[in-house]
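During the no-cost extension, the postdoctoral fellow (Dr. R.K.) reprocessed legacy sequence entries with the updated structure-token encoder. One reprocessed record is reproduced below for audit purposes.
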Amino acid sequence: MFDINLGDWLKEKATGAVTELIRKQKRILISDTTLRDGEQAPGASLSIDQKLAIARQLDILGVDSIEAGFPASSKEDFEAVRLIASKIRRPVISALSRSSRKDIEATVEALKGARQWSISLFLGTSPILRKYSLNKSQEEIISILKDAIKFAKKFTDRIAFGAEDSTRTEPDFLHRVYEEAIDSGAVVIGIPDTVGWLVPEEVKDMITGIRKNVRNVNKALLGVHFHNDLGLAAANTLAAVECGVNVVQCTINGLGERAGNASLEEVVMALKARGDYYKASVNINTKKLFATSKLVSELTGVEVSPNKPIVGKNVFASEAGIHQAALLKDRRTYEIIKPEEVGQAGTTIVLGRHSGKHAINNRLKTLGYKLSEPDSDDMLGAIYQRFMELAVTKKEVTESELSDIAKEMLERKKNG
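Re-encoded structure tokens follow.
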């Protein structure tokens, strides 16, 4: 569920010196799993060509790595991963694999055409998964993961290992799992909150515990993958960044199973807008966020909520009169991010029953109406009154309707 992109820095095996460099720079590597976990959202399945189109856009966006799919799960997924691996050259291309030799062989075959690629292994570790999903003991889990990582090392040194349902795994056992994974050759250790269980303070406690109790933890980077079942995926991801995690896995629009995953656009813009707090860097072209969100929405058929942070259509729109008046003077009054920073067109002043005279007057000027003195206030009041009569009957008044009102009231004045 995790991969690593050190770009051209990493030609050989990831070493303690390389991982320490990333930590000191506080560089956050963005691993996008829209094409794997995101596509698992009900009704969001994509064709191979659609997956390639999204992969191209993710490349433009600047993600460090793309988890392109799960090759062993189906012929279609295998072919999609192979196509993306052959066409997308800048980011690392990874694919998900169960901790079995058969899965690993299929994954390597699908990825071998990539310029840079990695294997993302996973294995359930929690008591409930050990009993009901795998029917394996703790010792059997350790044996399976060691064999899988060592087998994968025959093909690449870029190996990530994620302990599925790690957040409900006994801490002592989880620490042992991670120690064995690193000793076997994993260079990224994944902490997936598979069912969206944790709250931010627990995230911090968990990561602190891993850093304290996994003896070889400095030989690998830590990565996180949060689900949004309690609406905390982005908050949990940011809490992990505070604790020194360097790899975060997200999806565009927060797509994913059940309530989805941490939203890439939310995490990235929190890190950017609150750089004073997080003091971390990400190499994302934020001006491409809206276009990427729109493409994913169109191709998956999953609409974005109007109030979705960063990319929703209402995020930079205002109907409240007091807010509109302030925004017209200085957008910083009620906008903490410039719309242009994320690729949105700009601030939208919505004409509705909550709008005030300042907004109406500003829109009239935009439409070319200049109310003459000395009775401009009276005329604006008359237009506003007529506007409100219409606004209470509908959700939004169009510019054309406002223009008709202005023409009507000005004509009445002219004719006495």
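Residues 7-14 have pLDDT under 50 and may be disordered. The chain is about 45% helix and 10% strand. The remaining legacy entries will be reprocessed before the final report is submitted.
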